[in-house]
Design brief:
The structure holds two protein chains of two kinds. Chain A is α/β, with parallel strands linked by helices. Chain A is built from 19 helices and 19 strands. Helix content of chain A is about 40%, strand content about 20%. In chain B, strands 5, 6, 7, 8, 9 and 10 form a six-stranded antiparallel β-sheet that branches. In chain B, strands 1-4-2-3 form a four-stranded antiparallel β-sheet, with helices on one face. Classes of the chains: A alpha/beta, B alpha+beta.
Chain lengths: ~475, ~230
């Protein structure tokens, strides 16, 4: 899958089947996006037009004189089998079928699916879809989706590969990820997965140098064992974080034992994930957050967390979540507590046991945050440092942390910033921290879930 | 053809997918899981005789391929303490089934020594449509679906994974010995989980579900007291 996959993510020539001169139509909107890629050869396909947007139009892909890497099909379902046949004859390598109306519709749709399976089975064609939004290669800023939303977003390139079984929600999560400060490398909306499956994409992302972590919004997988075996291999190299939906499904199957009744599909999915090192996120947002933290910071080598905070309240809420995630808040040694005092890393009146409570904001607190974080990192007494900054401190401390980030990031101990401050300020604050590879998480629940993931990755790497 | 293949063929040949208890026990024994000895009787008189032989409290259960959840239909009697009670229980059980499930095939009544378990566990396995063979461990008995204190893994499992499954369940703490009770033989329990998971893998082409519930813990020892095995329908 790896080599041939370049036709999907980085094609040199693209045929748009269903291109249209009619303004506002889907065929026109998608073509408008495609022609912006000046270095790519774009071939509009439409038997009724001579030229569209100044490009020569062809009746079918077979009529294109040159080689075509990728055909993007957006025509109605019933036309797709014949188009696939012409793609085979025309030597097309990869096909994205965005069209809907196949197995998800039943009846005639199912027949069409069978027909397509026959064509694909007898050819070298690889097919993504149908019923999908398409592929977005952010590494090259190549948008091969039918989405209009993507054009409105100024998505930034990053290191997270995203496989989504849902198209619209996938795009929404790309957008939300942007807000959270996440950059993506590749986005795949797989739809009905007639040919290309999750594991194909996973295998491609395994060696994609632009991708450091993989997130999957999953309804179901095909060939579970194959997926799990591959995931076990990939997760040794890069984290895979999954948000599995459709947890209450059982029912439909004929079940005779308690085991069957209890298995449902979700329990088994969850067990399978554990077996292959997949991190299961509790929600789609938690999936994004965890991916962000994992892509920015090293893993934990144990389960001990040190907390620096200016609010006993947030620290208490956070500490309460430790046992849920198998994390510990060890009491700091007397020597370390003494050092915190001696080096002016905390006020004389605060508690230094862990959490280190810095008390109410003062201008000197920026230095306290920095020094106590550094001393914790250096101490060997904790495996991660959670820096909790409630209120304006997260804004005030941003520059200092950014400026001296190379020191803080040199200990090989992960740092997570939990900052809670007004949104208008946080936009910039997030950028500053993220620019120095310090992930900002804005909620105790997600902060602890991401620390759990750092701990899990640390253990998984050792296996 | 192996013994189990012959067994599966016999069941399929009779148009069944569910093994009866005797057959299920044969399967478990083959998988290396120790099962509670049982006696099959077809008359009340025989029931009384078996009681005499065992000489201790017994339980009696209906043997019928048509009855899935025996206790729901009055197909089980417990605390039988005399030959007379054994006779009466035979009549009661067969009567209940005849009344509640007219036309059900009644092959007889099964008699076992009544064990007083400290804990009841469940060990099950099934062939999942997506992931293939999986194995389950948990807090067993009739409330298993209420408490859902269970853990799954893909089969077969290693010792480490079997132990991981056990630790995921709350019952694990109890099994260490709780309130003066003897701790369960952990090695044996791990082996049981492994055996069942391997059995599921070996026979996944024929078997759909295989379950021991309850897996009784009597004075620290494990005994499979009831079992259910379902073949794939072809």
């Amino acid at each position: 899958m790896r080599g041939e996959f370049s036709s999907f993510v980085s094609p040199n020539s693209i045929a748009l089947i269903g291109a249209s001169a009619k303004e506002g139509s889907l065929g026109n909107r998608v073509l408008t996006k495609l022609v912006q890629n000046k270095e790519k050869k774009i071939y509009p396909i439409n038997p009724k037009s001579e030229t569209i947007m100044g490009l020569q139009c062809y009746p079918s892909v077979e009529d294109i004189p040159e080689e075509v890497d990728l055909a993007f099909i957006i025509t109605p379902a019933k036309t797709v089998p014949d188009i696939l046949r012409s793609c085979v004859r025309g030597g097309v390598k990869a096909v994205i079928i965005s069209s809907a109306g196949f197995s998800e519709k039943g009846g005639r749709g199912l027949e069409l699916k069978e027909e397509m399976l026959g064509i694909i089975g007898e050819s070298h064609l690889r097919v993504v879809g149908p019923n999908c939004l398409g592929i977005y290669n952010l590494s090259e800023n190549l948008d091969l989706t039918i989405s209009d939303t993507i054009r409105l977003l100024d998505l930034k390139k990053g290191s997270i590969g995203f496989i989504s079984q849902s198209g619209a929600y996938g795009i929404t999560l790309l957008m939300k990820g942007l807000d959270m400060g996440i950059g993506f490398s590749k986005f795949f909306s797989l739809g009905n997965k007639i040919d290309v499956k999750d594991y194909d994409i996973l295998e491609y992302l395994e060696d994609d140098p632009e991708t450091e972590a993989v997130i999957i919004y999953m309804e179901a997988v095909d060939e579970g064992r194959k997926f799990i075996d591959l995931a076990a291999r990939v997760s040794k190299k890069k984290p895979i974080i999954v948000c599995k939906v459709g947890k209450e499904e059982a029912g439909a199957r004929a079940i005779k034992s308690h085991t069957g009744a209890l298995a449902g599909s979700y329990k088994v999915y969850s067990a399978a994930f554990k077996d292959c090192g997949i991190i299961e996120a509790t929600s789609s947002f938690a999936m994004l957050e965890t991916a962000k933290v994992l892509s920015m910071q090293p893993v934990m080598k144990g389960n001990r967390v040190g907390i620096v905070t200016n609010s006993g309240g947030v620290a208490a809420e956070t500490a309460d979540l430790c046992h849920v995630h198998g994390l510990q808040l060890p009491e700091l040694s007397d020597a370390l507590q003494q050092r915190l005092k001696d080096e002016d890393a905390a006020p004389a009146y605060g508690s230094l046991k862990n959490p280190i409570d810095l008390g109410a904001p003062t201008p000197s607190m920026i230095d306290w945050y920095f020094r106590s974080t550094r001393l914790l990192l250096e101490s060997g007494e904790v495996d991660a440092v959670l820096v909790i900054m409630a209120g304006v401190m997260v804004e005030w401390s941003a520059e200092k942390f950014h400026r001296d980030s190379s020191l803080l990031n040199s200990y090989g101990v992960p740092i997570v910033i939990m900052g809670i401050w007004k949104e208008e300020a946080m936009r910039k604050v997030r950028q500053t921290y993220h620019g120095a590879s310090f992930p900002v998480v804005e909620d105790p629940v997600r902060a602890m879930e991401s620390l759990d993931a750092l701990k899990f990755r640390g253990m998984w790497g050792e296996v | 053809m192996t013994q189990l293949e012959r067994l599966f063929n016999k069941v399929k040949g009779q148009g069944r997918t569910q093994l009866d208890l005797t057959e299920a026990k044969e399967l478990l024994t083959h998988c290396g899981i120790s099962v509670l000895k049982d006696y099959k009787v077809t008359t009340a008189k025989e029931a009384a005789a078996v009681f005499q032989e065992i000489g201790r409290p017994i339980v009696m259960k209906i043997i019928s391929p048509d009855v899935l959840h025996k206790s729901d239909l009055g197909g089980i009697q417990i605390n039988i303490l005399s030959p007379e009670q054994a006779e009466a229980s035979f009549e009661k059980i067969t009567g209940n089934i005849k009344r509640q499930l007219p036309g059900a095939v009644i092959e007889g009544v099964l008699i076992e020594e009544q064990l007083f378990a400290d804990y009841e566990l469940i060990v099950g396995a099934l062939s999942d449509d997506v992931f293939g063979p999986v194995v389950m461990f948990g807090f067993g008995g009739i409330y298993v679906e209420v408490f859902k204190d269970i853990a799954f893994r893909l089969a077969p499992v290693t010792k480490k994974k079997a132990l991981e499954m056990m630790k995921e369940c709350s019952i694990y703490k109890v099994l260490q010995g709780f309130r003066g009770k003897r701790p369960v033989e952990m090695e044996a329990l791990v082996d049981t989980i492994i055996s069942l998971s391997e059995c599921m893998v070996e026979w996944q082409d024929s078997l759909k579900e295989l379950e021991v519930n309850p897996l009784m813990v009597v004075d620290g020892e494990l005994i499979a007291a009831d079992a259910r095995a379902i073949l794939r329908s072809m």
